[in-house]
Amino acid sequence: MFSDSFLHKKFFSIIEKKNLLPPKSSLLVAFSGGQDSLTLIRLLYDLNPFYQWKITLIHFDHRWRCDSMLAAKQVFSFAKYYNFPIYYFESPDYLNTEEAGRKWRYTNLIDLAVENNCTKILLAHTATDSSETLLSNLFRGTSLDGLASIAWSCQLTQSVDIIRPLLNFYRFETSWFCRKYYLPIWVDISNYDYVMSRNRLRQELVPYIKSYFQPNFEQRCYSLSSIVKYDTDFLEQEALRIYVILIHQEFIAINYIAFRLLHLSIQTRILKIFFIDNLNFNPNSKQIDDMIIFIKQNISAPINMNNYILVMDDIWFYVGVKITEFS
């Protein structure tokens, strides 16, 4: 049916087990030219006679390196060889932060997927990426959610899902795969720019940990983040279940009498759900802590928080939008 490498079998097994890529789906695949995305595209190509997907590639040029145009030419040549249509996006402005680049990529991914009726956006994130994300979040001071594994799939819009079908692959595996099938890896010199904190993690810290502390560091991180993901999913489900019971049927309010009986972990999640659901506002951890103190102390006077007013009566904790008066 398809090439018989162990990674082909591994890929086939996971997309079948999790039903990630149903037959005849329209796929939009992010293609950087690196070893992980090369592996993903070759696997899709080899399995496509069986699944009959409609595959479209997309390449982003951030202009972070002097040879980015040469890399783009190689990406186009690779797409032409496999007969896949490809879209090319060049950054209109110099994006000098990882976060700015990420937002730009995701905006264009979603827009192009909707425009072309693609139901799945595929990213070539691996278990190695997951371990780097775990470390990065840990150093920034993360919650339990930040230690959870990257999701295999998540819904971006009603019609578009984001899929990461290589999450149980490791970078040493994709490196082997590219060598085996003579795939032309383009070495991204920006990966060695240590201004980007992730590059320093990848090139210095992780090899140091593997050499002196835990040679199977990536596998251990993958196991840890997977276990944490189970716990955070359970907490989120419990918070959603209780949230539906606590909310007011007419006003933007929560029954704080019942709310105060809950564990702090559930309280935190319910308040996040409450604000996102009603006001499209995602409060930070300090704002959540301040609101919990406000509720526990049963403060009767209104309190301002950003553009919102918090008020309590005998039963309900209300949130209103502050109206600005113009003279």
Total beta strands: 10
Highest-level CATH class of the largest domain? Alpha Beta
Q: Into which percent range does the helicity of residues fall?
A: 40-55%
CATH superfamily of the largest domain: HUPs
Largest sheet: 6 strands, mixed
Shape: elongated
CATH topology of the largest domain: Rossmann fold
Q: How many DSSP H or I helices?
A: 11
Mean pLDDT: 87
What is the gist of this entry?
The protein has 2 domains: 6-220, 3-Layer(aba) Sandwich (Rossmann fold); 247-321, Uridine Diphospho-n-acetylenolpyruvylglucosamine Reductase, domain 3 (2-Layer Sandwich), CATH 3.30.465.
Describe the overall structure.
The protein has helices spanning 6-17, 35-51, 68-81, 98-115, 127-140, 171-180, 197-212, 217-246, 256-259, 264-279, 285-296; strands at 26-30, 54-61, 86-90, 120-122, 153-155, 161-163, 253-255, 303-305, 308-312, 316-321. It is an alpha/beta fold. It folds into 2 domains: 6-220, Rossmann fold, CATH 3.40.50.620; 247-321, Uridine Diphospho-n-acetylenolpyruvylglucosamine Reductase, domain 3, CATH 3.30.465. The strands form 2 sheets. Strands 3-2-1-4-6-5 form a 6-stranded mixed β-sheet, with helices on both faces. A 4-stranded antiparallel β-sheet has the order 7-10-9-8. Helix 2 packs across helix 6 (171-180), helix 5 (127-140) packs across helix 7 and helix 10 packs across helix 11 (285-296).
